[in-house]
Amino acid sequence: MNWIYEEKQSMHMVFTIINIIVAVILIGQVIYIQEIRDNIISLIILIVIAIFLVFVGFSFYHLKIKISDQQLMFSFGPMKKKFYIKNMSETHIDDYKFKNYGGFGIRKGFDKTTGFVAKKSKGIKFRDNHSNKVYFFTTDNPDQIMSLLIQYGAKKA
User: Fold this and answer.
1) Secondary structure in 3-state letters for 17-28
2) What φ, ψ does residue 8 adopt, rounded to 5°?
């Protein structure tokens, strides 16, 4: 795929730091609590959870946005969404609203939208006509992305 636009938006470092701290606390429990060390199942479970938290912290650190002349793609780590631009309608620039999404990452909004939110900033909101679902993603360049999407066939709100 020939991408004509690519952006990597960094998540607030606080999210990653919290995951790493929790992982370190879990590993600390494995090392210092005798009952956990003696119970192999508890030990394995805590180690798997710690590794998972570190993986999540690093995987969700960047929101990647890519646009070709036919597709829009955005992703957090392995969680990826692709859309044909011609199937996008009600496309517009919108502000991130904490009261709707309640945080950062992949969020289900109270307004039933699915948000890919890396930080508190403007983003693009649109309806995918194929699934009839509404999506929102944050970006550092909402005007440029909006212009590209309209140029390649997305319908404005």
Assistant:
1) HHHHHHHHHHHH
2) -125, 110
Q: Is the dihedral of CA 44, 13, 124, 121 positive or negative?
A: positive
Rounded Cα gap, residues 122 and 94, in angstroms: 6
Q: Which pTM was predicted?
A: 0.78
Q: Give 92-134 pLDDT, tens digit per residue.
A: 999 999 999 998 888 999 999 999 999 888 999 999 999 999 9
Asked if 77 and 104 count as a contact pair (C-beta separation under 8 A), the reply is no
Q: Which conformational region is residue 39 in: left (phi greater than 0), alpha (psi within -120 to 50 degrees), or beta? A: beta
CA distance 32 to 125: 48
CA–CA distances in Å: residue 88 to residues 13, 19, 27, 131, 136: 32, 35, 46, 10, 12
